[in-house]
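Incident log, structure service

09:12 report received: a user says their structure output differs between two submissions of the same chain.
09:20 pulled the input from the user's history:
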Amino acid sequence: MRKLYAEHGQITTGLIDGAPDLPSNNLIRRYFGSRTAAMKQAGFPVLSRSKIQQRLWKGRKRRQVR
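09:34 re-ran on a clean worker, output below:
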């Protein structure tokens, strides 16, 4: 996960499932309870749901302007 975070600046379900050297997102969720819990335990910054929503809306607005 550290390698993914270093390369992409974030960790998503798609990145985890596409990484050949990581277990599946489902296995991570079963072991840690959630991907967020796994990220917290690994020491990664975790955004609140409201921050995630804000980023999504900003991205959508940028795409609409283009």
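09:41 both user submissions now match this output. Likely a transient worker issue. Closing.
09:42 reviewer note: The helical segments are 2-8, 13-18, 25-32, 35-42, 49-65. The chain has a mean pLDDT of 85.
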